[in-house]
Design a protein that fits this description.
By secondary structure, the chain is α+β, with helices and mostly antiparallel strands. It folds into three domains: 5-275, no CATH class; 336-409, CRISPR-associated endonuclease Cas1, N-terminal domain (Ribosomal Protein L15, Chain: K, domain 2), CATH 3.100.10.20; 417-653, Four Helix Bundle (Hemerythrin (Met), subunit A) (Up-down Bundle). It has helices at 5-16, 29-33, 36-48, 77-97, 111-122, 143-151, 157-168, 191-208, 227-242, 383-391, 417-427, 430-456, 462-477, 484-502, 523-545, 564-587, 609-624, 638-653; strands spanning 57-63, 69-74, 128-133, 171-173, 176-178, 212-216, 219-224, 254-256, 262-264, 267-270, 273-275, 336-339, 345-349, 352-357, 360-366, 372-376, 380-381, 396-399, 405-409, 626-628, 635-637. The chain has a four-stranded mixed β-sheet, with no helix packed on it. A hairpin with a 2-residue loop joins strand 9 (262-264) and strand 10 (267-270). It is globular, with a radius of gyration of 28 Å. The two termini are 41 Å apart.
């Protein structure tokens, strides 16, 4: 995307017609107008060079007419311009995706069309009507699912990056900056369109079930011919929303019988007829004097804009940023910056992370593209790089040159008190922890068994065949386990069977007899240990990002200095991501014995530096490879699957699901 200046000017003109309010920088649209030309030129350069950083919105609470309050955010003028530009870019892909039953936040559609659509069903009496409202809809949109929907639109990567920036920029309320890990901000230009996109799959499911759905934002109705079908439809609606981590608001959700009146979008529905709401009286413009003449002039209203498609943008392939000769540092579509050369130096120049090694520039990466920085061994960061990483909430992970985890540097997490309270309560509930632990163990055993079955099709092994049968029998015993100790025993026995069988499926000259950890005593164990470390740190970041406490687990009992929840959630991914990758690297002869160091004084075997770079390259490719997520049905990257499973656990924690649903492979 080339960000033509004329498109930025058009976006600014639309922003100029909207709210004059200032964001956190105190600049109103009237003030901005005086320097608009210079600011738009500067904005264009920042967008083209990928230096632009979204600002937090100015937040305040607005009281609702029926009680309660709604959080509103006012972005700065520059962010409003960027959001308007992004909305124009999204217009055609979104319209191709949206269905005819949705009417909010769409040019050329509105309340009257939604009412007419509903009337076409309602006029044929008798009808039973489900009128529903989603609880705290805008505040509860799962970012992982929302980004998954956006990725399906085949947008340019820079557009996705800018949308993600806007969503994650945060909000300042009474001087305190917050970083909500879910939801979209009411008051932002993009929010309505993104919210509509989030519910499009729900619309599609309703229509596939034959439901007569009319939706306007998070308000919707479904018309059914009888009471039985209405109740069945309500169950389908509840299930469909649960898959999106949403729930209905009970006090605003009701089934209306044919003889009952109801209101939808201000229109009154009764006995098969529809009555329009009375005209709104503007007190300022309708105040009369005793003589009957207006006491003051009617307030002038700004002209209404006609809905129209956005003007066409010139789309060109974006230029590639400079990269090092060796692509182990960075290449599309990586999001983690790995630095392995001993003595390498990371600094910041013009909002880019810059890596130098032996005085030579190795790569430049725009900060907007980086989600994690991983340092192996003796690598140095400038104060500017540390400061920028903290400001942008980019974790910096420190590992030894051999891949042992030391620690991390990151901004203090935004803990969700609501989650923490539930984590403490659930940790004290043995029934809850046992239910979730059973599910975690079953998920791990299932995926381990599936990997053995897949590998055994290529490299036949009698021990693997026996282990496959034994794991199946072991899985039958798990549901009857009466304690965590018994479950840990099943998990340990299953791991023993699995690794004994896995060792027979590696091609010579590699030999794997048993799992050794600290230190890994053979090449296969070395690859497994490094993979588990990287998997653990990815999961740790996602757990902390959403506001969960990493130390309250279920299968793994909470103890000091051990992120038990991280250990729980990574169990199902060990075979999925790490073990399958190691088998591929070894059996495809991508790695050879010469890639590994001789045993050290403790017997530890590790990758040589050049082989470590090769491993990290394949690890990133594995994270970026796509598979179908079983609980959403979307084809997403493995990295996104990690994030979605964290939200699966939150749904279980908050009582929306009884049992955690692990991510499982199909044969």
């Amino acid at each position: 995307m080339d960000f033509p200046l004329e498109d930025l000017i058009a976006a600014w003109r639309q922003v100029r017609r909207g709210s004059r309010s200032a964001g956190i920088d105190g600049i109103t649209t009237d003030l901005f107008a005086g320097v608009a030309k210079e600011q738009l030129y500067s904005l264009q350069r920042q967008l083209q060079q990928e230096h632009y950083a979204a600002h937090p919105a100015l937040g305040f609470y607005l009281r609702k007419t029926r009680g309660g309050k709604r959080l509103i955010g006012i972005p700065v003028v520059l962010d409003r311009i960027v959001q308007r530009l992004l909305l124009e870019e999204l217009y055609l892909p979104l319209e191709d995706t949206f269905l005819d039953c949705s009417y909010a936040y769409r040019p050329g559609r509105g309340i009257q069309m939604a009412v007419q659509h509903l009337e076409s069903y309602y006029q044929f009496q008798p009808t039973w009507v489900i009128k529903a409202d989603i609880a705290q809809f805008f505040d509860n949109l799962c970012h992982a699912l929302l980004f998954t929907h956006l990725e399906q639109l085949q947008l340019e990567p820079i557009v996705l990056q800018l949308i993600e920036q806007q969503l994650k920029a945060g909000i300042v309320i009474k001087g305190q900056r917050l970083f909500p890990q879910k939801g979209v901000l009411q008051g932002a230009v993009l929010s309505g369109a993104l919210a509509n996109l989030y519910l499009t799959e729900f619309d599609r499911q309703c229509l596939s079930h034959g439901l007569n759905l009319v939706r306007y934002g998070d308000d919707f109705v479904v018309v059914a011919p009888d009471w039985i079908q209405a109740n069945r439809a309500l169950e389908q609606i509840t299930t469909g929303l649960a898959q999106l981590y949403l729930t209905l608001q009970p006090e605003k959700t009701k089934i209306f019988a044919p003889d009952e009146e109801f209101t939808f979008l201000g229109y009154q529905f009764a006995g098969g007829t529809v009555t329009a709401p009375p005209p709104v009286v503007n007190e300022d413009s309708e105040a009369f004097s005793e003589s009957g003449s207006p006491s003051r002039r009617k307030t002038r209203q700004p002209p209404k804009l006609k809905s129209r498609p956005p003007k066409t943008c010139n789309i060109v392939k974006r230029s590639q940023f400079p990269i090092a000769d060796l692509d182990h540092y960075w290449k599309e579509p990586m999001t983690t910056l790995y630095i392995t050369d001993q003595g390498a130096y990371l600094k910041v120049e013009h909002q880019q992370f810059v890596v130098f090694y032996q005085g030579e520039l190795r790569c430049k990466v725009p900060v907007n593209r980086v989600s994690h920085i991983v340092l192996f061994g003796c690598c140095n960061l400038s104060h500017g790089a540390v400061s920028l990483a903290l400001r942008r909430r980019i974790p910096v992970l420190y590992l030894s040159q051999k891949g042992r985890y030391f620690g991390r540097l990151q901004t203090e997490g935004q803990a969700e008190v609501e989650y923490l309270v539930r984590q403490v309560q659930c940790a004290l509930d043995p029934d809850f922890t046992r239910r979730q632990a059973k599910s975690i163990v079953l998920g791990k055993l299932h995926n381990s068994r599936i990997l053995l079955m897949r590998l055994n099709r290529r490299v036949k092994s009698e021990k693997a065949a026996k282990a496959i049968d034994s794991l199946a029998l072991l899985m039958l015993d798990v549901p009857d386990a009466e304690s965590i100790e018994v479950l840990l025993g099943y998990e340990g026995h299953g791991s023993h069977l699995y690794f004994q069988a896995l060792g027979t499926l590696f091609k010579e000259p590699f030999v794997f007899e048993k799992r050794t950890k600290r230190p890994p005593t053979d090449p296969v164990n070395s690859l497994l240990s490094l993979g588990y470390t990287l998997l653990s740190q990815n999961m740790y970041s996602m757990v902390q990002t959403v506001g969960l406490h990493p130390h309250f687990g279920n299968l793994h009992v909470p103890r000091n200095n051990h992120p038990a929840l991280v250990s729980d959630l990574m169990e199902e991914f060990r075979a999925l991501l790490v073990d399958s990758l190691v088998a591929y690297l070894v059996n495809s002869k991508i790695f050879v014995l010469e890639d590994f160091t001789p045993p050290d004084e403790r017997g530890g075997v590790y990758l040589f530096p050049d082989a470590l770079k090769k491993y990290l390259k394949h690890w990133e490719e594995r994270l970026q490879s796509k598979m179908t997520h079983p609980h959403t049905g979307y084809k997403v990257s493995n990295r996104r699957c990690l994030e979605l499973q964290v939200w699966e656990y939150i749904a279980c924690l908050m009582g929306e699901q009884e049992i955690y649903r692990p991510m499982t492979w199909k044969m």
